[in-house]
Amino acid sequence: MTYAAVSPPHDAPKTRSPRERWDAFVKPRPDGLPASRVVAIPLAALALLFVALVALGITGSSTGAVHSLISDGHDQDLIAGHPQGIRSDEWFVQTSWTISQVEQGLPLRNESFPGGMDATVQHDLPAADWSLVLRPHLLGFLFLPLDQAMAFKWWFPGFAAIAAGYLLVIALLPRRPVSAVALSVAFFFSPFLQWWYLSATLYSAAWAFLVMAAVIWCLKSAGNIGRWVLAALLAY
C-alpha cells in the first residue's frame, strides 16, 4: 500500500483577503463613476435613519425653551443637550406658527392675527395647497401626527444636504465611500448650518452639491439612467 500527499488543484479558488474584497466592492464602473452599490447602500442607510427619527418624533427643535415658562421640573421630552433660546426664530416663530396651522386645519390663510395672513408665504408654513409639492419637507403634515410631521420637516432638508454632498464626493472619489460619508456628515454638522438650521439654508447647500454631482455624472457617464435621474432631481 502506498500513500501520497493530496494537494489542492492549481485552479482552486483562493481565499481573498479583506482588503481584496473591499477593493472589489468599491471598484468603479468602466466610465470611472462609482458602482451602484457604493451609491445605494449609504443612501439607503440614510433613508432608514430618517424613517426611524420620524417614527420616534425626534427633532433638534429648541421648543423646550417654553418648558421653563410653565414648569420648574425636568422636561421629560428633552433627550440631550439644552434648548437654544437665542434661536427664537425657530421655536418661538416658525414652530408656533406651524402648530397654529395644524390646529386650524392647514388653511391657506391663517387667522391667528386679526385680518389673517397668507400661510403660503411666511414662515415656511404647511398649508393644503399645491405649493407643498415644491416644499417636500412639509408634506408630512398632510398624513402624519404632529410630532412625526415636525420630525419630517426637521430632518428632510438636512438629510437632503447629506445625500447630495455624498453624491458629489463619491462622484469625485468613487473608491472612498467611507470618506464620502464622513465629509458629507461633517458638512451637515458645520457650525453655519447648525446655527441657521432652516430649510432655505440646507436646500441651498443641497442644490449646489446636486448641480456639481450632476455635471460630473453627465460628463463621465456612459449610460443615460444616472444622467436622467440627477437631471430630474435637479430640475425639481
Q: What is the topology?
A:
Layout: H1 18-25, H2 36-56, H3 67-70, H4 88-103, E1 109-110, E2 117-118, H5 146-172, H6 177-188, H7 191-195, H8 199-220, H9 225-235
Antiparallel strand pairs: 1-2
Helix pairs in contact: 2-5, 5-6, 5-8, 8-9
Q: Tell me the number of strands.
A: 2
Write down the secondary-structure element order. Answer: HHHHEEHHHHH
**Average pLDDT score:** 87
Determine the fraction of residues in helical runs and give it as a percent range: 40-55%
Q: End-to-end span in angstroms? A: 79 Å
**Basic shape:** globular
The largest beta-sheet arranges its strands as: 1-2
User: What's the Cα radius of gyration?
Assistant: 24 Å
Number of helices: 9
What would you call the structural class?
mainly alpha
Protein architecture, described:
The protein is mainly alpha-helical. The chain has nine helices and two strands, in the order H-H-H-H-E-E-H-H-H-H-H. Strands 1-2 form a two-stranded antiparallel ribbon. A hairpin with a 6-residue loop joins strand 1 (109-110) and strand 2. Helix 8 packs antiparallel against helix 9. The N and C termini lie far apart (79 Å). The mean pLDDT is 87.
What is the compact description of this entry?
The chain is built from nine helices and two strands. The protein has 236 residues and is mainly alpha-helical.
List key phrases describing it.
236 residues, 53% helix, mainly alpha, two-stranded antiparallel ribbon
